[in-house]
Amino acid sequence: MKNKLPLLIAAPVMLASVKALAVPHEGAPEQWNGYFKGQCELSSPKRGVFYTFPMALEINDVTKKKADWIITYGEGETQQVRNYSLLTIDSDLGHYAVDENNGIVIDQYLIGNEFMSLFEVASTKIQTTYTLDSNGTMDVSMESFTFDPVRENDIGSYTVSSYALKSKQKCKLYKW
Fold first, then answer.
1. DSSP at 8
2. Among 23, 25, 33, 34, which Cα is nearest to 90's?
3. Structure confidence by residue, pLDDT tens digits, 70-87
4. In angstroms, rounded to a whole number, what is the distance separating the alpha carbons of residues 164 and 167?
5. What is the pTM of this model?
6. Is 79 in contact with 87 (CB distance < 8 Å)?
7. What is the pLDDT, as a whole number, of residue 61?
C-alpha cells in the first residue's frame, strides 16, 4: 500500500496540470470564419416575393471573445455595410451576441449549426436564424411579426398568443 499512495496522489495532480494547459474555446466554432455572399428574397403573405437583393456576411476571428460580423446589403452606390461584432458571452452555453456598435446588442444562441435570436424593435418581433450547412453554404432567415397578438386564448392558467407574419427575408449565401 505504501508504494501505491504516491501514485494515487500524483495521478490527480498530473491530470489537473494537463487540464490547466488546455486552451479553453472562447469563440464560436472556427467553421463560421469566412466570407459568405449570395442573394436574398423579401416576401410577405399578401405580396409573395416582392424584392430581391444581394447580401454578404463576413465573419473573422471567431476564436476570440470579440469577432467581426460584417453584413453588407446591396452593391455599388446602394450598398449598406453594417460593421457589427460577434461577442462570446458563454460558449459552453452557446450564448453569443451581435453588437451593432451603436448601443444595440442582440443576444443569440448557437445550437448545433444554427445561430438563433428573437428580439423586438418598435412594433415588430424579429426572429433570425443563420444556418451553416455541411456543404459550406449558409441559409439566413429573418421573420418579422406583429408586436401585438392577433389572437389570444386563455387555457387554464396559460395564455396562448399568436402573431401575424409581416415579412420574411430568406437568403442563400455561398462561402467565397
1. H
2. 25
3. 999 999 999 999 999 999
4. 9
5. 0.82
6. no
7. 85
